[in-house]
Amino acid sequence: MDNYYINPQGMVVEYMDDNTKKLNELYAQLEILKIKFKKVIMAARIYQKMIKAIKAEIKKLKDGG
């Protein structure tokens, strides 16, 4: 039980040194960035499809409808 203590709220929590805390924070930030990046990629794919559809419509209208 050396790695655990009771916090002011009365909960048993694992003791972490500063490096471990910082490492956990960095892992959390990394996961958040991964999620944001996936959303950006999804949006880019949607925009690519929209651009392709607009170009096809322009070509169709140029060729005489």
Structure description:
- It contains one helix and two strands; from the N terminus they run ββα.
- With 65 residues, it is mostly helical.
- It has one domain (4-62).
- Strands 1-2 form a two-stranded antiparallel ribbon.
- The longest helix is centred in the middle third of the chain and has 45 residues, at 18-62.
- The N and C termini lie far apart (77 Å).
Helix-strand layout with pairing:
Elements: E1 4-6, E2 12-14, H1 18-62
Report the order of strands and helices.
Answer: EEH
Uncertain regions spanning at least 5 consecutive residues: none
Quickly count the domains.
1
Distance between the termini: 77 Å
Which descriptors would you attach to this protein?
two-stranded antiparallel sheet, mainly alpha, rod-shaped, 2 strands, 65 residues, 1 helix
Describe the structure in brief.
By secondary structure, this protein is mainly α. It has 1 helix and 2 strands; from the N terminus they run ββα.
